[in-house]
Design a protein that fits this description.
Layout: H1 3-19, H2 21-26, H3 28-41, E1 48-52, H4 58-66, E2 71-76, H5 79-88, E3 93-96, E4 108-114, H6 123-132, E5 134-145, H7 151-155, H8 166-173, E6 177-184, H9 188-199, H10 211-224, E7 234-240
Parallel strand pairs: 1-2, 1-4, 2-3, 4-5
Antiparallel strand pairs: 5-7, 6-7
Helix pairs in contact: 1-5, 3-4, 3-10
Amino acid sequence: MTSTDADVTQNYNVEWSGTWNDARVIGPTARHSRRLFLAMTADLSPGTIVDIGCGEGSLLAALGTMHSNASLTGVEISEKALSLAQSTLPNAEFSQLDVEKDACDRTFDLVVSADVIEHIEDDETALINIAKMTAPGGRIVLSTLRGRMRDFERDIGHVRNYADKELQNKLEQAGLKVELELAWGFPFFSPIYRDLLNFLGNKGTSGKFGFVRRILCHCLYWLFCLNSSRRGDYLFVRAVKEN
């Protein structure tokens, strides 16, 4: 591991030491993300699932509840996140992996990754590695942001927000066939909520959530239920690795 790699890992260890934890479990955007991942995979029957950038494990846990016969694996660059995920899912398998640099030495029926690819400098290599981890006939579901990048998104590590069809085209270049797309979030998540977070400097979305913030998250979750699932900047793409 180079010094730069070690710095990146350390930064994510810091973020997973209390900054992002509650936001990923309780936050309205994360809750809707899990809901949409479940919707995008409801017609599948995977025997194996891997979550790339699994964080604290909430998405993998939700998928494991829906696909109860699947064996679960999570990979992460952050040791702290892996520790949190292991406590959430003690029967799942977890390991450290930087998908920009490497792939697992096995394949999976379902590969998911939520809000990770926009943080990766060399996303084309990462997508090739993701394709290597997908079994023939298996599916990949990714979520990311597209459109105008706000300053606070740069501050939390985004190196890009995707242009229209950019991610889809890169998936195709990695040897995958896009079969489903969902664009969610207009108008309450994007632009309203994202612009508000930008104005506030992303304040209120990190750290431990007390009673008031939990109530606010619950209210925002139900408000976000009014968002369009055909128009928005929160992008979900499903692709298949053909035999």
